[in-house]
TrEMBL record:
Annotated organism of origin: Thermophilibacter immobilis
Basic and acidic residues bias locations: 713-725
Name of the encoding gene: kup
Protein name: Probable potassium transport system protein Kup
Comp. bias (Acidic residues): 699-708, 741-759
Primary location recorded for the protein, binned into one broad class: membrane
GO CC aspect terms: plasma membrane
Location of this chain's protein in the cell: Cell membrane; Membrane
């Protein structure tokens, strides 16, 4: 951009870097309420599942118990503490965590890395739909162990289903309040819960300190491979894995609460969990020969180890804890989808920021889909036993994909190959064994999460592939090449005046280029005459209350490229802000007053009327793309319609709108040249035979066929560049990729990352 062009920029701009959520007592409470619900409820069912899978209480000898406890302790230590808290949380993207945030750091290291990111993200979102249904149903069924609630519920599972659905409805309705408010409400309950876990464990542990031998990892390895001790073999890992299912959600929720608060709170949570597991182990050893307890169906050591008078408190607390466990997956899902949108793996969605911290978000569409999905799972399975069969299978896939991406991060970004290789081999082997053991759940309900994950993967694949196809045809042309045409059009009385101010919304944040589709809409697809043209790009800043704009007038009084910078807490009703911007341009003399001749007001406004033009790309029958790409684009545009319109996102429902549909610019199919036949000759013409028509159609089909992977996106982009150079005004200086102006921020982030990696 030359000096004169720079001089024409009017700037209302301030840049501030986002900072992570700081350590504080209030946020520690929020962290306990938001992050640890899933992993915090694992003592209710982990040892119960291991005892049941090994053949019952009578098979649980001291060596068996110590081996099982050792596996639990070291799974929590290796997977949750080492992999996620100590390693994965170092790999944050502007303080955001989760598999997509991790992918955004390593995506430049290999084009294929997008596949594990998509697979892992889809699996985690699917598990996030299942978890609330499982935990809440399990909690409500647990109320039957209290006489008072059993008198109300009895064995009628329909009542359990109704209560579960009601609780889920309340839970998802609460999401609009934001994770900060929810965390403050849930935080005290979870704090009491973890203290209760520790006290219950200490009560039983004090009678048998020998269970502390479970800290020896050799006992866990021996138990795993000794068939005389472990009746389930490697399949026992499917039950042991239940103790760490919340680890991935912990990483995803980092953006909501800040890594400092997780670092400070995790040691407390882990100690409470391990003490409770040890207490359960001590109780099992002490009661191995109890015939009465051995005869109890579905024996749960967590409740049985408590005195009778305290058991009621435990059931009530566990009910609340199970409900809160759903929160970790819900908030984690918001973070995952937000990162997916930023990476163009999912469509743009309206995001709300209920608190003053940008990391705490609420996505209405995601909340609604999860709400419907959870209720659907409850109605499908009806009881927790069937739901638990699917529990954990999808999350093992996510953990494997995260390990793969972390290996790339450590080796290529941190340049620590000596650490990356053993990390990948060690954790990959452990998690593959967890995955293999969880496969037994597939036919018992796991197929549901696999099906949901597959649907989510298809959505991501379609959106990403469709975006790649669109970008092969995206051309950004220099605006100054079209100023003469726009000036002539704005003064051409042969065309009716469409509006005083015609506004186009654009995704690119450059100051001197425009998407070809916008210029095509103005000049070619019924020329649109206006007194002034505005091309508006909206950016959300990391500060909550930013109200700034940048304007390039190209040295004219009729063409303006505007970037509107709004804080994440600011209501994006851009029509009101545009009125202010145009008023500012009139006052500064950059545009002539647009006086109204008629008005109900005594003082007429010097700002004219507005009309917003929203452009939508569509496929035309003549578009020359492969059958697969055509179906992909059709699905993408269908998904886009289901996700809402910019008119709603930007508060334009009551504004003067013009919806313009332009073809997806692509090479058109080669058409046969028509031959004119005179009327007199046509009367004497011989009818065309059906065989000739069939042969012609076959030839056209062969011409249209294209191998799915042979015509790469790069080849298509090169053809698009060549065609633009030949046919478009300013095509020789056009850009063929999305334009941004925040490259400096990205480079700064990369430099900081490299510096951090050297520490």
């Amino acid at each position: 951009m030359n000096a004169s062009r720079k001089a024409s920029l009017s700037v209302r701009h301030h840049r501030a870097k986002s900072a992570g959520i700081p350590l504080s007592a209030g946020m520690l409470l929020v962290t306990l309420g938001v992050v640890y619900g899933d992993i915090g409820t694992s003592p209710m069912y982990t040892l119960k599942a291991i005892v049941s899978g090994n053949g019952g209480l009578t098979t649980m000898s001291e060596d068996v118990v110590l081996g099982a406890l050792s596996l639990i302790i070291w799974t929590l230590t290796l997977i949750t503490t080492v992999k996620y808290v100590l390693v994965a949380m170092k790999a944050d993207n502007h303080n955001e965590g989760g598999i997509f945030a991790l992918y955004s750091l390593v995506k430049r290291c290999g084009k294929w890395l997008i596949i594990p990111a998509m697979v892992g993200g889809a699996a985690l979102l699917a598990d996030g739909i299942l978890t609330p249904a499982v935990t809440v149903t399990t909690a409500i069924e647990g109320l039957r162990t209290i006489d008072f609630f059993f008198a109300l519920i009895g064995d009628n599972q329909r009542i359990v289903v109704i209560i579960t659905i009601c609780i889920l409805c309340v839970l998802f309705l609460l999401q609009k309040a934001g994770t900060s408010k929810i965390g403050r409400a849930f935080g005290p309950i979870m704090t009491v819960w973890f203290v209760f876990l520790a006290l219950a464990g200490l009560y039983n542990l004090s009678g048998n300190l020998s269970v502390l031998r479970a800290f020896n990892p050799v006992r866990g390895v021996t138990f795993l491979f000794d068939g005389n001790l472990n009746a389930a073999g490697l399949m026992v890992l499917g039950n042991v894995f239940l103790c760490t299912t919340g680890a991935e959600a912990l990483y995803s929720d980092m953006g909501h609460v800040g890594k400092a608060n997780i670092y400070a709170s995790w040691p407390f949570v882990k100690v409470c969990l391990i003490i409770n597991y040890l207490g359960q182990g001590a109780w099992i050893i002490a009661n191995q020969g109890n015939v009465h307890l051995a005869g109890i169906d579905d024996l749960n050591p967590f409740f049985q180890m408590l005195p009778e008078q305290i058991r009621t408190v435990a059931v009530v607390l566990s009910t609340f804890a199970a409900i809160i466990a759903s929160q970790a997956l819900i908030t984690g899902s918001f973070s995952i989808v937000s990162e997916a949108v930023r990476l163009d793996l999912m469509p743009h969605m309206r995001i709300h920021y209920p608190s003053e911290t940008k990391g705490q978000i609420y996505i209405p569409l995601v909340n609604g889909i999860m709400w419907v999905g959870c209720i659907g799972v409850v109605l499908l399975f009806k009881n927790s036993e069937h739901m638990e069969a699917a529990y954990g299978l999808a999350i093992t896939v996510t953990m494997l994909m995260t390990t793969l991406l972390l290996f790339t991060y450590l080796s290529r970004i941190r340049h620590k190959v000596g650490l990356a290789v053993p990390f990948a081999l060690f954790f990959g082997a452990i998690e593959f064994m967890f995955f293999f053991s969880s496969l037994t759940k597939f036919f018992h309900g796991g197929y549901v999460t696999v099906l949901m994950a597959t649907v989510l993967f298809i959505v991501m694949y379609v959106w990403r592939r469709g975006t790649a196809v669109e970008r092969t045809q995206s051309v950004y042309l220099p605006v100054d090449k079209y100023l003469d045409q726009l000036s002539n059009l704005s003064h051409d009385d042969d065309y009716p005046l469409l509006a005083d101010n015609l506004i186009f919304l654009t995704n690119d944040s450059s100051f001197d280029k425009l998407d070809r589709d916008i210029l095509y809409s103005i000049l070619d697809k019924r020329p649109k005459r206006a007194r002034a043209y505005y091309f508006l790009n909206v950016q959300v800043t990391d500060e909550p209350h930013t109200h700034e704009f940048i304007v390039n007038d190209f040295g004219t009084d009729f063409v303006f490229k505007i970037q509107l910078r709004l804080g994440f807490k600011v209501n994006q009703r851009i029509n009101a802000y545009l009125y202010q911007i145009v008023s500012d341009l009139v006052e500064s003399g950059q545009i002539a007053p647009q006086n109204h001749r008629y008005s109900i007001y005594r003082e007429h406004s010097n700002v004219g009327d507005f009309r917003f033009c929203l452009i939508r790309k569509v496929l035309s029958p003549e578009t020359d793309i492969s059958g697969v790409d055509r179906r992909v684009m059709g699905l993408k545009y269908l998904i886009r319609r289901l996700c809402g319109s910019p008119a709603r996102w930007y508060g334009l429902e009551n504004s003067n709108l013009l919806f313009e549909y332009v073809p997806l610019f692509s090479k058109t199919k080669r058409q046969h040249k028509l031959t004119r036949v005179e009327l007199a000759d046509a009367v004497r013409a011989t009818p065309v035979h059906a065989a000739d028509l069939a042969a012609s159609a076959s030839a056209d089909d062969e011409e249209d066929e294209e191998d799915l992977f042979s015509a790469t996106m790069r080849d298509k982009r090169e053809r698009s560049v060549e065609e633009a150079n030949k046919s478009l005004v300013g095509g020789d200086t056009a850009s063929f990729k999305p334009l941004v102006i925040d490259d400096e921020e990205e480079e700064e982030g990369e430099e900081e990352l490299d510096e951090d990696g050297e520490e």
